[in-house]
Amino acid sequence: MSPMHYVYLAVILFSIGAATVLVRRNAIIVFMGVELMLNATNLALVTFSRMHGALDGQVMALFVMVVAAAEVVVGLAIIMAIFRARRSASVDDANLLKL
Amino acid sequence: MHTGMGSLAHTVGTYAAGLAAHEGEAHAATGFTAYAWLLVALPLAGATMLLLGGRRTDKFGPVVATALSWAAFVVGAIIFVEMLGRGADSRAQNVTLYEWVTAGTFKLSAGMLVDQLSMVFVLLVTFVGSLIHVYSLGYMEHDPDKRRFFAYLNLFVGAMLLLVLANSYLLLYVGWEGVGLASYLLIGFWNWNPAYATAANKAFVVNRVGDFGLTVALMLMFFHFGAVDFQTVLGKSAALTGANQGFMTAMGLMLLLGACGKSAQFPLQSWLGDAMAGPTPVSALIHAATMVTAGVYLIVRSAPIFEAAPTAQLVVVIVGAITLLFGAIVGCAKDDIKKALAASTMSQIGYMMLAAGLGPVGYAFAIFHLLTHGFFKAGMFLGAGSVMHGMNDKVDMRRFGGLSGAMKITWATFGLGWLAILGVPPFSGYWSKDKIIEAAFIGEGWRPWVFGGAALIGAGITAFYMSRLFFMTFHGKKRWDADDHPHESPRIMTVPMIVLAVGSAFLGLILSWNDMFVSWLEPVTGAEPEGAHPVVPVPLLLTLTLLLVAGGVFLAWMRYWRDDVPVTAPAGSLVTQAARKDLYQDQVNEALLMRPGIHLTRSLVFADSKGVDGAVGGLAALVGGTSSRLRKLQNGFARSYALTMLAGVVAILGALWVIS
Amino acid sequence: MTAVAPAAFQQSNVDYVAILPMLIVASAALVGVLVEAFAPRRRRHVIQVSLAVVGLLAAFAAVVWVAVDPNKVGHKGLTMGFTDGTTNHSVFALAIDGPALFMQGSIVLMGVLGILTMAERFGGVGPDAFTPSGASTPGSASESAAARAGALTSEVFPLTMFAIFGMMIFPTTNDLIGMFVALEVLSLPLYILSGLARRRRLLSQEASLKYFLLGAFSSAFFLFGTALLYGYAGSVYFGDLSKAVATGPLAMNGLLLPGAFLVFVGLLFKVGAVPFHAWTPDVYQGAPTPVTGFMAACTKAAAFGAILRLAYVGLDTARWEWTNAVVIVAILTMVVGSVLSVTQTDMKRLLAYSSIAHAGFILVGVLAFDRKGVGAVLFYLVAYGFSTIAAFGIVSLVRQNGGEATHLSQWAGLGKRYPLTAGAFAFLMLAFAGIPLTSGFVSKFGVFSAAIGTGGATGTTLAVIGVVCSAITVFVYARVIVLMFFSDAPDDAVEVVTPSMATTFSIAIGTLITLALGVLPSSLLDLADRASQFVR
Question: What is the ipTM of this complex?
Answer without folding.
Answer: 0.97
